Every structure is written in C-alpha cells, then in structure tokens.
Amino acid sequence: MQRYGAKWGILRSWVPTWRVRSLRQNVRELIFDGAIAAKASPYEGLSSAEDHLFDYEREPMRALAGDVRELDVLNVGGDPAHREWLTSHGARTVGIDPNEHDLREALPLGKESFDLVFSSLTLHFVREWEPLMREFHRVTRPNGALVFSTHHPCRGLHDGLGVDYFSTGLVVDRCNSSDEDVRLRYWRRPLSAVVSAVIETGWRIAKIAEPRIAEAVDPWFLIVRATR
C-alpha cells in the first residue's frame, strides 16, 4: 500500500467513523470546513503488507493483559492474531466486531460479565470515547481490567503532519491500493483527552506503554491498562 498524504479537519457531516471505510475516488467525501493538507501521514506503513509492524503493538498489549487463563474476555476489534492468542492462552472470549456493531451505541452485553476488556487499535475510529468507556466499565466485573491500544497522539508530529496537537480531529489518510484510491479515517487526540476519557468514567490507569518501532523518532502506539 502506497501512502500519499493526509488531511486534518473537523467533521461537519455524519460519517460512521467508528469503522474503517474504503471509499472510491468518485464517491463524494464528507470532508470538512477548515481541513488542511498534511506533509506526511501519521499512519504511513501501517498496512497488511507490513504486518510485522503490528508485532510492536501485539507484544506489549499481551504483556499488559497478563495471565488470561480462565478469564472471560471481551475482545473489541478484529485482529485475528490477538483473538488466537487469547483463546490459545485459555481465555473465554466474546468478540465485538466494529464493522457489525456501532460502538457509539450500548454494548449488547450484560452488566459485570467480563474480567477483561481487550481492544486493539480500534478506539481511534470512535470520536467520543466517554460513552464507550462507560460501557466497558459497565460490562466489567469489580477488580477487572481494560487494556487497549490506539495510535499515539505524537505519531507524525515530527514528520510535519501539520496539526494542532491539543485538538481532537479527524485524520483522513489518502492511500492507493491496487487500482483505486481509498480514504482511511482516524480520530487523533492529545494524551490529555485519552487520559481524561479513561479516569472520568471510573477507571484507574495502572500502566501506559509506548513501544518504540526500530529507529522511529515518534512513538506509533499508545497502550493503556486500567482497572475497575
């Protein structure tokens, strides 16, 4: 997958940003007043063709999850490698696919049903985190945990993304795949917004990891473990 660049702006029209969408070039894009062109994409290289890059996220995610044997785990996201790891290590898993369930809506799950909520590289498709964090808290048992990863707020800043770090905005990543242009949309938010969304919904942050990818100047992933 070849990357061409990104845009940043404020969403004016409804777009289902809780899921990844690939749009053909001739589909009208609902991009925003005030969007600015960026010199580089913060997600350059994050493609299935370079799947080994995700190993830098997978190992610390699993380390923060800890021993999952005999745990009831809610797996929010679609990484099959994580799903296989959870089940092979003795977890009882229930999956939520963001392509099938709108993460802005209540989870179709009972109160205090899980010991661990595990969400890999999914939350950056959601604009408002607080309602979802409350849902995670609702379905987690007392003393349970939440472990999630997202794209790091600082990713791309040294590459000239050209965004206001302190704002929450939508990155529109333009790339070329096969014979069509696609647009991948992600919400990028400052670290303070990430932390506030967690602690203001009843969670206690236990640990944060920022794995380094090779010789990259910026961190690519932010991984958080919080407890109930």
Question: What topology does this entry show?
Answer:
Layout: E1 2-9, E2 36-37, H1 55-65, E3 72-76, H2 80-88, E4 92-96, E5 114-119, H3 130-139, E6 140-151, E7 169-177, E8 180-188, H4 191-199, E9 204-209, E10 221-227
Structural class: alpha/beta
Q: Write down the overall mean pLDDT.
A: 77
Q: CATH fold name, please? A: Rossmann fold
Strand fraction band? 25-35%
What is the CATH C level class, in words?
Alpha Beta
Task: Identify low-pLDDT runs.
Answer: 1-50
Quaternary arrangement of the chains shown?
A: single chain
The named CATH superfamily? Vaccinia Virus protein VP39
Report the CATH architecture.
3-Layer(aba) Sandwich
Q: Number of DSSP strands?
A: 10
Gyration radius, rounded = 17 Å
Put simply, the count of helices is 4
Report the principal-axis shape: globular
Largest sheet: 6 strands, mixed
> What count of structural domains?
1
Q: How do the helices and strands follow one another from N- to C-terminus?
A: EEHEHEEHEEEHEE
Rounded to the nearest angstrom, the distance between the terminal CA atoms is 40 Å
Query: What is the topology, as strand order, of the major beta sheet?
Result: 4-3-5-6-10-9
Helix content: 10-25%
